[in-house]
Design goal:
Bound molecules: iron/sulfur cluster
Order of helices and strands: EEEEEEHEHEHHEHEHHEHEHHHEEEE
Number of strands: 16
Radius of gyration: 20 Å
Largest sheet: 9 strands, mixed
InterPro entries: MJ0683-like (IPR040086), rSAM (IPR007197), rSAM_sf (IPR058240)
Organism: Herbiconiux daphne
Protein name: Rv2578c family radical SAM protein
Shape: globular
Keywords: Iron, Iron-sulfur, Metal-binding
Length: about 350
């Protein structure tokens, strides 16, 4: 099995009290290549998660998350609170204590072979990133892609990981037999800010190069310009620069939304803001005083600002795909005629 025979430098039965509750924990691993991180390898009982309330907002009813927690460590990550279920915290633990479903490919193969599996679309990257750093060690995605394509299951992948390039031949092969949607999330086009707010991610340049690599394989690649950070990345200059680079990289369409700050994320984000941009704390406190979303006035203002920039760069307007659960290019038959969709917990993004 995949997790046998790996070289380990330290192995601990359980490094955190909450993990003792996991009766499927194989071991917890730390290695010098991933300094500061611990991988908790578990045997998953199921690979496919059913998402209740699939809709035009979330055009997928099924997801796969090979990892829980994400070393990309985006300060604004909406999935942070999901990490508290094992007494892990939504801050540093989310970034550094990664649950790895080491048998996810084998379990998935059994699940999609069942007669009851009707081959609805499956979305990857809706909760945590399937091409985060751990994937370089565990290589779980190839078996997932093979199982989905082999069973005739359409799928979508949303990632910030340039590691997806490793699997592009396989993904291109899969796209010959099932509909596939790919999207690269690239929100910040200022290197200093990007390293500060997404410290574990590949650079913007590396992600743009991944978009180009996808296009060179003959596949579409959407760019998710999400989240747009009020007062930090919402200037005309930044947005114009961003969409210019996305278009030049070959993006098929762009999807954007303003920052959301739900409980459990807001505290982590505001602590970062106080450290890095203290002059903006009161402005953010006002903007997000009423809850998770920026006020509708802000979102309307942003939409008005974005529209001519999107047009200027000749970017297509993406649409939710009823077939893959991702974003389909304009005119494709599987496109749903609805105005908006977003990942889990990410309501009201706008599509262009
Ligand atoms: S890449 Fe996605 S899942 Fe990972 S930390 Fe960033 S926002 Fe969260």
């Amino acid at each position: 099995m995949r997790w046998n025979g790996q070289t380990l430098d330290s192995e601990t039965p359980s490094t955190l009290p909450g993990l003792a509750r996991l009766n499927n924990l194989v071991r917890s691993v730390q290695t010098p290549e991933f300094a500061g991180m611990t991988f908790h390898e578990v045997l998953a009982k199921s690979a496919l998660n059913h998402v209740s309330g699939a809709s035009t907002m979330m055009p997928f009813a099924w997801t796969i998350n090979p990892y829980r927690g994400c070393s990309h460590a985006c300060v604004y990550c909406f999935a942070r609170p999901t990490h508290t279920y094992l007494e892990l915290d939504a801050g540093k633990d989310f970034d550094q204590q990664i649950i790895v479903k080491v048998n996810v490919g084998e379990v998935l193969e059994r699940e999609v072979a069942k007669k009851s599996w009707q081959h609805p679309s499956v979305a990857l990257g809706t909760n945590t990133d399937p091409y985060q750093r751990a994937e370089g060690r565990y290589a779980l995605m190839p078996s997932i892609i093979r199982a989905l394509a082999g069973s005739g299951t359409p799928f979508s992948i949303l990632t910030k990981g340039s590691l997806m390039r490793r699997d592009l031949d396989l993904i291109a092969e899969a796209s010959q037999v099932v509909p596939v949607s790919l999207a690269m999330s690239i929100a910040v086009y200022d290197d200093e800010l990007q390293q500060s707010i997404e410290p574990g991610t590949p650079t913007t340049k590396a992600r743009l190069a991944t978009v180009t690599a996808v296009r060179e394989k003959g596949l579409d690649c959407q760019v998710f310009l999400m989240p747009i950070l009020p007062f930090l990345t919402d200037t005309t200059e930044h947005l114009d620069h961003a969409l210019g680079l996305a278009a030049a990289a070959g993006a098929s369409s762009v999807v954007y939304s303003a920052l959301h700050l739900k409980p459990g994320v807001k505290q982590w984000f505001m602590a970062w803001l106080s450290r890095e941009h203290p002059q903006l704390v009161s402005a953010y406190a006002r903007l997000y005083a009423k809850g998770t979303y920026a006020p509708v006035e802000y979102r309307e203002w942003l939409a008005a600002r974005m529209k001519p920039i999107v047009r200027k760069h000749g970017l297509n307007r993406g649409r939710p795909s009823g077939v893959t659960g991702g974003v389909a290019p304009p005119g494709r038959a599987d496109t749903l005629a609805v105005p908006s969709f977003g990942p889990v917990g990410d309501s009201q993004p706008m599509l262009f």
